[in-house]
UniProtKB/TrEMBL annotation:
Record keyword Cytoplasm present: no
Annotated function: 2-oxoglutarate-dependent dioxygenase essential for auxin catabolism and maintenance of auxin homeostasis in reproductive organs. Catalyzes the irreversible oxidation of indole-3-acetic acid (IAA) to the biologically inactive 2-oxoindole-3-acetic acid (OxIAA).
SUPFAM superfamilies, per the entry: Clavaminate synthase-like (SSF51197)
Protein name: 2-oxoglutarate-dependent dioxygenase DAO
Keyword Protein transport among record annotations: no
Superkingdom per UniProt: Eukaryota
Keywords: Iron, Metal-binding, Oxidoreductase
Cofactor needs: L-ascorbate
Organism: Dendrobium chrysotoxum (Orchid)
One example GO MF annotation: metal ion binding
Record family assignment: Belongs to the iron/ascorbate-dependent oxidoreductase family.
Residue intervals of the Fe2OG dioxygenase domain: 166-266
Amino acid sequence: MGSDSKQVSKIPKIDLSGLHPSVAGGERWEAAKAEVAAALFSHGCFEAYFPSSSDELREAMFGSALPEMFALPLETKRRLKSDDVYHGYIGQIPHMAYESIAFDDPVSPTAVEEFTKLMWPEGNSSFCKTVEAFAKALHELVEIVQMMIVESLGVEKHYDSLVSSTTYAVRLSEYGVPLNQDTKIALDPHKDPNLVTVVCQSKIDGLEVQTFDGDWVNVDPSPNSLTVMVGQAFQAWSNMRVRAPYHRVRVLGKEKRFSAIFFSRPSHNSMVKSPEELGDEDHPLLFKPFSYTEFVKFLYSEEGRKAKNPFNAYFRIGNEEAA
Ligand SMILES: O=C(O)CCC(=O)C(=O)O
Ligand SMILES: [Fe+2]
């Protein structure tokens, strides 16, 4: 594939419009659930048609909120500190035209406000309202997807314990023109460590996913769609029934690209434990309960970065097929 070409998407597209996590069940829910389960089993991802993230909201996010925030002075953006690896402000990485900011609990009543105050002590209510609305819409989508996965695996009774030990976060990113103009890769291939990720792209797309057959494909977003992906913590929790796909970002043109991600992850100090029902004689449970915090620390440690397959290296299952 030439560096300027894009492959036609093979990522399943699923209509989740009008569905809500508080009214699970019914014919439409069951039909969509079957599609979500099939897509996640075969691809680890899908393109969700979910119009609550409307044109207007996208325009407010990518036309104003994100460009305004990334235009702030570096020392302002660096005010956001985090003890978590790969959280807080990231940028000024050699060989990468990339900056991102991630903060927790965007659906709590005060978190976006506090973050806004940190960036703009004088206030910026349009930024705050936009990011709150974005988080609210995508939170519903993540809840729908998590609920559908758990139901499809037949382990509904573990849903409450999964959700009570889950936190949510937002990552806002800005990509410049990739320094490597041969590959045009702006973010290297990786699997997300968390539970479920939803990616919202600006008009300038670039997210590519590797199918389990090994082909890199463009996710082909529409103005009303979002990309849903499974992360490695869900892969482990589900005893490998759903698997996290590799993905990367390529920016082909010369314009800045923005993206906004909403994701779920196991909360601090909680232990991730696969439901016993997901193991049987033919498929024994592969993972002992693990701390997500320790897992992420390992992923970004020297040993984790060097490992060909950090997931396997962490869990020491030594089974290439399982990844
Ligand atoms: O910007 C995107 O489209 C995806 C970024 C991504 O994969 C990540 O931040 O983990
Ligand atoms: Fe990612």
